[in-house]
Every structure is written in C-alpha cells, then in structure tokens.
Design goal:
Blueprint lengths: L7 E7 L7 E10 L19 E11 L4 E9 L9 E6 L3 E2 L8 E5 L8 E9 L5 E9 L15
Antiparallel strand pairs: 1-9, 2-8, 3-7, 3-9, 4-5, 4-6, 4-8
C-alpha cells in the first residue's frame, strides 16, 4: 500500500524542543478548506472511516520531560493563534513512552474542521533533545506496514 504524500503530515519530523516547556508545529499542515464554500463540515473520508497514524521513528530523549502529540485544526498555518482545537491527543506521557516503533492510531471524526490541519508537539518539564515521528492519514490502517520504500509487498 502506498502512503499518499498529500495525507502525510510528518516524515521523520523532529520533535525536539529546547525551550523546556513549549508547543511546536511538527512537519507540514494540510489545507482542508482550499475553497470557501457553504458547508463548514469537512468529510475527509468520503463517508468511510479514516485513521490518523503517528509512529515514533527516533526515540524521544529528555530527562524528566513529558510530551504530548496533538492533531490540531486551526484558522492559522502555524496551528496556533486564531481559532484552534485539538481533534486527537496522545495525552501527556513521560518521554519513556515515545520509543522507536510506538504507534498511536485514532479514528478521525467527521466534524467542523478549521482551514488547516496538522500535528503539534508539547513538551513539559525539561528539554526534549531528540525524537522524531511519522504522521499521516490512511483509510486502511490494519494493512499498513512501515517499510523502507513505504510499499507493502
């Protein structure tokens, strides 16, 4: 199965935050309202279930730190300021929970998304000096397998 690059937010995107406490946008955002129209509700899946997959590709490092990942929708490309809300969150977890190969999978709702959609990371308590993730949307999460070429054979 191919992963559609139009549905990929992060490809080994760094999750390091050297601010001690802070929020940052990871990878790229997607514009889910490229045209203004009369229907504010976005059906990203064409009536079928779709899933967010977040996979840790480099273990997170940060003494005493905790971290969370959010799928965020916002009126701003930075995914902060303006009107912003989280569609999914991992919840705040200790850094030890972000090990290589760890996956977070969530079914995405059909709801009122703001114009931009993307992944944000939030560090609390200490610097996060290393860590990276892949994040994307897929229709068939049960058959998706990570490979070097991103193709199942």
């Amino acid at each position: 199965m191919f992963i559609d690059s139009n549905l990929e937010f992060c490809d080994a995107a760094s999750a390091a935050l050297d601010t001690g406490d802070g929020i940052t946008k990871l990878g790229n955002h997607k514009d889910v309202h490229p045209l203004t129209g009369d229907n504010a509700t976005v059906d990203l899946s064409g009536g079928e279930p779709i899933y967010l997959v977040i996979e840790v590709t480099t273990a997170f490092v940060g003494s005493g730190a905790s971290y969370k990942l959010d799928l965020t929708t916002s009126t701003e490309t930075a995914l902060s300021g303006g009107t912003t809300k989280n569609i999914y969150t991992t919840g705040t977890l200790t850094i030890g929970n972000f090990t290589v190969g760890k996956r977070f999978i969530a079914s995405l709702p059909n709801e009122d998304y703001h114009r931009y959609l993307g992944i944000r990371g939030t560090a609390t308590g200490a610097n996060v000096t290393a860590g990276a993730i892949n994040a994307f949307i897929t229709k068939d999460v049960t058959n998706w397998t990570s490979t070097n070429t991103r193709v199942n054979v």
